Automatic annotation (TrEMBL):
Ranges of residues in domain VTC: 31-241
InterPro entries associated with the record: VTC_domain, VTC_sf
GO biological process terms held by the UniProt record: polyphosphate biosynthetic process
Gene3D superfamilies (UniProt xref): VTC, catalytic tunnel domain (3.20.100.30)
Transmembrane annotation, as ranges: none
A Pfam family the protein falls into: VTC
Designated name of the protein: VTC domain-containing protein
């Protein structure tokens, strides 16, 4: 089943780029991610500044006239929350597994993210057919092979089960300077649902993620001038704490506070 995401007005202010060119110029399956949390109301002047750039260094992904797309990610973890705790404690050898739905096209992918050298993220993925939430033999084998390659216990793949669903709308930008290119994703209308049915949402917040190399891009200098600094955050990390009050906030405490400030009144969780 496919859905069509509503398109924010600011997405119309930039020149479009098609998917083929974006993938060719900025594939970035291995990259350094820097994240920013921005109130949705603060985003338009930042986009205006990008659109006014005389060098036209920023373009927005456009597919069949659409510039904003609906995503759904079903995260997988062990009953002991092995992947969540490894991320929360900053373990060097850790991974994240999820089934991602591209709701506008009906595509599904099983994605496994691991840590590369010098703080990079490495993503591997395979297409998934069907709507099952749990992994089948082929998907389990794929995860195990990735873990073995990264010297992580491959037996963990057999324990994975659904642990959190996140939903959001994504707009993707292509950005460059004289020698470097990157992707920037802007995720809005964030929603989180636990297997027990606990739901939280932060519609007033946008997660801006710069997927680039180790050095800041020009767009990040623009964000800094507007008072925005990188923050340690993770949809899975924050979403798990917010929907599971028994979990400690740990390194996501600041990000969790921002999500709660942007929450709908009925979506507030108990403090942790």
């Amino acid at each position: 089943m496919t859905t069509t995401a509503a398109q924010p007005a600011w997405a119309e202010r930039l020149t479009g780029i098609d998917l083929t060119e974006l993938v060719d110029r900025a594939p970035l399956m291995t990259r350094v991610d820097r994240k920013y949390l921005i109130d949705a109301a603060c985003l338009p002047p930042i986009v205006d500044a990008l659109a006014a750039d005389p060098d036209s260094r920023t373009r927005v992904l456009e597919i069949e006239g659409r510039r904003t797309f609906s995503y759904r990610s079903s995260y997988l973890d062990t009953p002991r929350l092995t992947t969540w705790y490894a991320a929360a404690r900053g373990r060097r050898r850790r991974f994240k597994a999820r089934v991602r739905d591209y709701c506008d096209t009906g595509q599904r992918w099983l994605e496994v993210k691991t840590r590369g050298p010098r703080g990079t993220s490495v993503k591997r993925r395979i297409a998934v057919v069907g709507q099952q939430e749990r992994l089948g033999p082929e998907q389990t084998r794929f995860v195990a092979e990735v873990l073995a390659t990264e010297r992580i216990d491959p037996a963990l793949a057999d324990e994975l089960q659904p642990s959190l669903v996140t939903t959001y709308r994504r707009t993707t930008l292509h950005h460059h300077d004289a020698v470097r290119e990157c992707r920037i994703t802007l995720d809005s209308d964030l929603g989180f649902t636990s297997p027990a049915g606990v739901t939280r949402s932060a519609p007033g917040l946008v997660v801006v993620e710069v997927k680039a190399g180790p050095s800041p891009m020009p767009v990040e200098h623009l964000l800094w001038r507007h008072g925005h600094r990188p923050i340690t955050t993770s949809k899975y990390g924050v979403g798990m704490v917010w929907t599971h009050p028994e979990l400690p906030a740990l390194k996501w405490r600041r990000a969790l506070a921002r999500h709660r400030c942007a929450a709908t009144p009925t979506s507030q969780g108990a403090p942790s």
